[in-house]
Amino acid sequence: MKKQSKNVKNKPGISGKDSDKYFRPESKEELVKILEKHDDELTVIAGGTDLLVANYKNLYKIDKWLDLNWLDSFKEIKFFDDKVEIGSMVTHERLDKLDQIKEHFPVIQEAAADVGSPQIRSRGTIGGNIVTSSPAGDLLPPLLVYDAKLKIISKDGEKIVDANEFFTGPKQNVLESGELVEKIILPFEDNESRGAWVKIGKRKALVISSISLALNLVFNDDNEIIDAKFCVGSAAPVPLRIEKAEQNLKNKKIKKIKIEEVAQIVSDEISPIDDIRGTAAYRKKVAFNITKSALQEVINQ
Length: 301
Known about the structure:
Blueprint: E1 22-23, H1 28-38, E2 42-45, H2 51-54, E3 64-67, E4 77-79, E5 83-87, H3 92-97, H4 99-104, H5 106-114, H6 118-123, H7 126-132, H8 140-145, E6 149-154, E7 157-162, E8 167-169, E9 172-173, E10 180-187, E11 192-200, E12 211-219, E13 225-233, E14 240-241, H9 243-249, H10 259-269, H11 280-300
Parallel strand pairs: 1-3, 2-3
Antiparallel strand pairs: 4-5, 5-10, 6-7, 6-10, 8-9, 11-12, 12-13, 13-14
Helix pairs in contact: 9-10, 10-11
């Protein structure tokens, strides 16, 4: 059999690399140049676990793709004295397996372990979960209770946005055309903290949450609560901080918490809807029960 000549005219080049419909930057500088030229025309793909499912019948209609999978800087996790910076392309699987995340941000680790299946966790990214901005997104409540900030880049430069101000509605956020989430910044807590994560769905695996709750309490040396963060998912148009419950817990000793009182506050403060995963009344009742469970878990720690 004859070998094919290296000079055959129809020999393909590097697949996709030079296409005017598909871009895969390998550096931040290259990314910015692409955004300068095409920022309002690009469909961004990270892990693809949300995007491909949402568009599987209409993929041919997408004109230009921006593939972030070749950006190593977006996959970095860097630890500093006062914070950790997590690249938006870091997968749920890495968050689940990393000991430092489990040590400092256990609620994030538990939520990452609850996402989908092993296949989805190995592809789906923390940035994708954030930018999809579903009220049921598993990582969103944990990020809010740890006071996360998001580093956003565009052709015009960089800015930092508080995660509490990022989400504006169901699958809506403050990102404008041509803006990308580059990093998630989590500050370290100097004092002892204890947290809990509870997710309720219609089955035990591969489930979108009917309701979820993230809790983080910070204590002083006298075992008194000096800061409290409550956030409920799938119970409002955006991940919902329960500030009334937070205020109820502050300045109390751990054994002085009135669990049922706080649980009732959470149930009263949420504004769920009826949908395929549960009724509003069901979610309010479950919110009461999972708040009790989360507080009891923290007390037992």
